[in-house]
Amino acid sequence: MNEEIRQRIDNDVKNNKIFLYMKGTPEMPMCGFSSQAVNLLQHYNADFKSSNVLEDDEIRAGIKEYSDWPTIPQLYVKGEFIGGCDIITEMHTNGELEQLLNS
């Protein structure tokens, strides 16, 4: 990944409390996993920003290298990588996601 892409990702995840890399937009998710992630964040009325990786191949490839995580969506809270749809869903089920988003 080039330095410009790393800086763009750093800026996204470090300057927004909650940031979601996803396929599509919160208003129109383009895959079921991204839709599930958005629904969970909206369930908690989370104020989050997002990036549509389908609009930028460099970000789409770069975020996977940045996090060392192979899939999209990817959730970051307070600059920390939390996980993908499966982890977010599990955290919702056991109550950890609400605590994390409200901390």
Task: Write a structural description.
With 103 residues, this protein is α+β, with helices and mostly antiparallel strands. It has one domain: 3-Layer(aba) Sandwich (Glutaredoxin), CATH 3.40.30.10. The protein is built from 5 helices and 4 strands. It has a 4-stranded mixed beta sheet, with helices on both faces. A hairpin with a 2-residue loop joins strand 3 and strand 4. Helix 1 crosses helix 3 and helix 2 runs parallel beside helix 4. The longest helix has 12 residues. It is globular and about 35 Å long. It starts with a helix and ends with a helix. The mean pLDDT is 97.
Topology:
Elements: H1 3-14, E1 18-22, H2 32-43, E2 49-52, H3 57-67, E3 74-77, E4 80-83, H4 85-93, H5 96-102
Parallel strand pairs: 1-2
Antiparallel strand pairs: 1-3, 3-4
Tell me the strand percentage band: 15-25%
Reported CATH architecture: 3-Layer(aba) Sandwich
Mean pLDDT: 97
Tally of DSSP β-strands: 4
CATH topology: Glutaredoxin
Name the overall outline. Answer: globular
Radius of gyration: 13 Å
Total count of domains: 1
CATH level-four homologous superfamily name: Glutaredoxin
**Strand order of the main beta sheet, please?**
2-1-3-4
- Oligomerization category of the chains in this entry: single chain
Q: Unreliable segments (pLDDT under 50, ≥5 consecutive)?
A: none
SSE ordering: HEHEHEEHH
Largest sheet: 4 strands, mixed
**Termini separation (Å)?**
32 Å
Q: Count of helical segments?
A: 5
Query: Helical content, roughly?
Result: 40-55%
CATH class: Alpha Beta
Q: How would you classify the helix and strand content by structural class?
A: alpha+beta
